[in-house]
What does this fold into?
Amino acid sequence: MKQLRFWFDVISPYAYLAFERLPQVLEGHGVAVAYQPVLFAGLLSQWGQKGPAEIAPKRDWTYRQVAWLAHRHGIPMQMPAQHPFNPLALLRLGLACRGPLATPNRWVCEQLMHHVWRGGADANDPQRLEALAQRLQPALDPQGDEVKAALKAATAQAVSLGVFGVPTVEVDGRLFWGLDGLELLQGWLAGDPWFDGPAWDDAARQPVGIQRKP
It folds into this structure.
């Protein structure tokens, strides 16, 4: 059975849509999934990027595109009352519910995702967060040092593997980024012969012609 890791941050609408579509993508394949919360802002900082919501016209396009994608795939989705928002409370709550794989199970992650992306409410509303915590019944203190350290360690591990954005699926030493990366993941799991050719590795050897100054 293949081991697959789904790196995500609840702040990302693409992570939510990919989370909802993942069971369909994995259907027919023997795969065990670990759902790993990671701090997207930490990845952005490491790689010197801005998030889509930090660039005004890209922000507008992102929200239009994810609304269309949700419609196209029949996935219920409403933007939260404010976006972007600070996802730390939700990420830590998820890790406080971690199971035998040291990651939260799919049901826990589903509760986190639906808290943000269904209903259009404030993701950080204190009463809603309290109600969510009551429903999840975390085994650890979400604000405790152990959970905070776990999120930092997960983000550092993601960086060490070359994860630069969310969602990212890691399987067999390969990384598949983004909602549209699920199609590539399907090909890999199905044994598409394209992966036997040079294209995957050649992409990393493409010479750089010019670099912008910081």
User: Anything to note?
Assistant: The chain has a mean pLDDT of 96. Residues 98 and 104 are 4 Å apart (CA to CA).
